Amino acid sequence: MILETHIPSPALQPYIKAFHVIESQGLPLENRVLPGTAISLAFRFGGQVADGHGLQHTVIPEASLAGLRQSARLITYRPHSGTIVALLREGMAPAFLREPLYEMKGLTLGLDSFFAHSEIARVQEQLFGACNHRVRLAILERFLLTKLRPHEPDPTALHAVAAIRQAKGWLPMAELASGMCLSQDAFEKRFRRAVGLSPKPFADIVRLNALIDANRPGRSIQRLALEGGYFDQAHFNRAFKRFTGLPPRQFFSQSRLW
């Protein structure tokens, strides 16, 4: 398994957090991918990648978009598969996409739903024929630069994203809306339109990822729940299983590729 992270060129850094290059080499791999806060664009340059497990799997298109989701995905990488994933910054997807982001929630869609099929096919042909990752990243960046359009991100949504991150997701949404002099309904609509998910589930994603990242060997599940603000163990267990697909103890006993 090879996982490389690449920083975008300066022209794309305001819009893209990072590029991940994922290769399975000669063995099939299955990885549990937790929900994140970035809408992602994925471009395959070899093999096959599927969403799901066993007979319940769905082959992912060679070029795809994954909207924000609230539960984990099981991704299977067939032998000799290779994928480049572009993680978009929160609030910046409209610089590439005209479609309402909230309608993409929980979905994985072929990129030819958003761009001309001929353009996607040309990029895929170039990626499959490229001799190394440096060339592939250059091909992908050229394509994305041609798709950039003028976009002024919503400062209210970006401020809310930053506040939620700083609080590690442990922040009342009514308090956040009030601090911006907005009704909770108006705040939620602006956030959802800019980010692709309502603020409360977005904060839950940040909160649970922060808890998982903070876990250390020997730390009890009860203490982890309390540190995350879950004073009811049963509530924490339910929220954790919805998020990861597994109970806490089982999840932490398994290895993850990333």
TrEMBL record:
The keyword Transcription applies. Residues 155-254 form the HTH araC/xylS-type domain. The keyword Mitochondrion does not apply. PROSITE patterns: HTH_ARAC_FAMILY_2 (PS01124). Coiled coil: none annotated. Keywords: DNA-binding, Transcription, Transcription regulation. GO terms for molecular function: DNA-binding transcription factor activity; sequence-specific DNA binding. This is HTH araC/xylS-type domain-containing protein.
